Amino acid sequence: MGNLLCCVQVDQSTVAIKETFGKFDEILEPGCHCLPWFLGSQVAGHLSLRVQQLDVRCETKTKDDVFVNVVASVQYRALANQAGDAFYKLSNTRGQIQAYVFDVIRASVPKLKLDDAFEQKNDIAKAVEEELEKAMSNYGYEIVQTLIVDIEPDEHVKRAMNEINAAQRLRMAANEKAEAEKILQIKRAEGEAEAKYLSGLGIARQRQAIVDGLRDSVLGFSVNVPGTTAKDVMDMVLVTQYFDTMKEIGASSKSSAVFIPHGPGAVRDVATQIREGLLQASSLN
To answer: In this model, does residue 270 exceed pLDDT 80?
Structure first.
C-alpha cells in the first residue's frame, strides 16, 4: 500500500538509502517520506544506527609458545552522516571487522608471555580499537568500544598452571607450619628450663628448711633434757625419720618389694652417712 501511495516509513534508529534510477540520491531520516516510484525513486535498503556487537574468537600463541584462544568483543555502529559509505563501501561489515581483529591480536599476543598477556589485555584491547577506528572510519562506522573478554589457554596448560599454584601454596603452608613448630619447641624448651630452675630453687629451699628445723630441734632438745648431747639427739631424729620412711613405703598401694638393710648396724650406718652429709653441707656454706 505504501508503494502504491508512494509513501515509505523509516523506523527510529534507522536510515533509508534513497536511489533515483539506481543512483544514490539521499539519506532518509526516520519518519514518513514520499517516493514517487514512477519518477525512478526507490529505497535501496535500510541501515541500522544502533550499537551492534561482534564477538571474535582468535587462536594464537604467546612468546613462550603457549596456544591461547583470545575472545574479543567489538561494539560498533554506523554513522548517520556517513550512511552512504557504510551502505555502499562494505558488503560484509562483520567479516571486515573480524579480519582486522585477527590481524592485531596475532601481531600483539606473540610478543607477550602468557602471564603478561593476562596482565596486559587492556593494552591489547586498546591496540585493536585504535586499528579498527582508523580502518572503519573510512567506511562510515564508529568503533564504540573493544574489550578482550577472555584469554583461554589449552586445558593442559591451565591444569599445569593450577598445579604450580597449588605447589607454591603447599610450600608456603609447610614453611609456616615448620616455623610454628619451631617456635612451639623453643617455647616448650624455655618453659622446661624455667620449670627446672624453679624446681631446683624449691628443692634447695626445702633442704635448707629441713636443716634449719633439725638444728632447732637438736638445740631445743639439748637445752630441755640435761645430759644429752647433740649427737644423741641427732641419732634419735634420724632413727625416727628412718621408721617414718619405712612406714610410708609400706602404706603405699603402688609399692613393690623393696629390699633395704635393717638392724642396729644399718641404722647406725644411715645415721653416720646423713650426719657426714650435713656436716659437709655446713662446711661448704
So the answer is: no
CATH code given to domain 52-153: 3.30.479.30
CB 80 within 8 Å of CB 87? no
Question: In the chain, how many H helices and how many E strands?
Answer: 7, 8
* Per-residue pLDDT reduced to its tens digit, 30-72: 888 887 777 778 888 888 899 999 999 999 888 888 888 999 9
Given a contact cutoff of 8 angstroms between Cβ atoms, the answer to whether 49 and 15 are in contact is yes
Edge-first strand order for the sheet with 52-61 is: 52-61, 67-78, 141-153
Residues 6+ apart with CB under 8 A from 105: 58, 60, 70, 72, 124, 128
CA dihedral 42, 44, 48, 53 (to 10 degrees): 170
Helix (H, G, I), strand (E, B) or coil at 259: coil
In this prediction, residue 202 carries a pLDDT of: 83
Element (H, E) at 90: none
Q: Which sign does the torsion angle of CA 189, 194, 198, 203 carry? A: positive
What is the rounded distance in angstroms from the CA atom of residue 128 to the CA atom of residue 151? Answer: 15
pLDDT digits (tens, 9 = 90+) for 172-191: 888 888 888 888 888 888 88
